[in-house]
Amino acid sequence: MQTATPVQTKVPRPRADALRNRERIVTAAREMFTEFGPEVPLDEIARRAGVGNATVYRNFPDRDALVREVVCSVMDRTSEAAELALAETGDAFGALERFVHTAADERISALCPMIQTTFDQNHPDLEAARERVEQLVAALMDRAVRAGQLRPDIGVGDLMIVVAQLSRPPAGTDCDVSDRFVHRHLQLFLDGLRAPAHSVLPGTAVTVEDLRRPCTD
Asked: How far is 57 from 11, CA to CA, in rounded Å?
């Protein structure tokens, strides 16, 4: 007796308009989280995105899901900037400089404090996005070190923490005044990274693991 071959059903692909709506929601949320902080009403995000409230909740069942998507999208854009920098040929330090300025414009430091204690910081999507950024930044820095242009006593953590600090203030504050000085101060920092170094740094290079380690008294 022959067994009937099961009919394989196609998994429906999201409609183009549904994908566009999702992208509009994430863009609007990123802008409003940066401007007003994490407690901005979802209704206001829907209004700026030009979609109905139901569309927001259909894509993101709760605020944590939307915040996570926004943070991941910023990390993905930062990774894309690092990949473009790695694809450049020629001046390795110049490519690193351009990446750092682009990363600061993403204002990731204004979004990360929104991850509250109840937020799953070890969510697989966040972990994957974070690891991709870290690996690409490490590759950019390693190339500049091998070219003799970047001082070798700098770690990925050193670079990331300064970019985060200089691209503040946190979300929901008056950013306009500080924003005028971000790239000026970043360039001062970058000039201090050039080899040969003119000073000896105290301590050791900061790694990403150092940044994740909890503070102890």
From this structure: 22
Find residue 194's DSSP bridge partners. Answer: 150
The pLDDT tens digits of the residues spanning 98-126 come to 999 998 888 776 666 665 545 667 788 88
What is the fold of 70-212? Tetracycline Repressor; domain 2 (1.10.357)
Q: Which CATH number fits domain 15-61: 1.20.1250.20, 3.20.20.140, 1.10.10.60, 1.10.10.10?
A: 1.10.10.60
Degrees (nearest 5) of the Cα angle 187, 157, 68? Answer: 100
The reply to whether the predicted model has a pTM over 0.70 is: yes
Q: Cβ distance 119 to 71 under 8 Å?
A: no
Write the pLDDT tens digit of every residue in 22-64: 999 999 998 888 888 778 899 999 999 999 999 999 999 988 8
Q: Contact, 72 vs 29, CB < 8 A?
A: no
Within 10 Å of residue 167's Cβ, how many Cβ atoms?
A: 23
**C-beta neighbour count of 58 within 10 angstroms:** 14
Phi (first) and psi of residue 207, to 5 degrees = -95, 170
| DSSP output for 29-47 | HHHHHHHH-TT--HHHHHH
Per domain, the residue ranges of the chain are: 15-61, 70-212
SS3 percent helix, strand, coil of the chain, rounded to 5, is 60, 0, 35
201: Cβ contacts below 8 Å, ≥ 6 apart: 153, 154
Find out whether 156 and 134 touch, Cβ atoms under 8 Å: yes
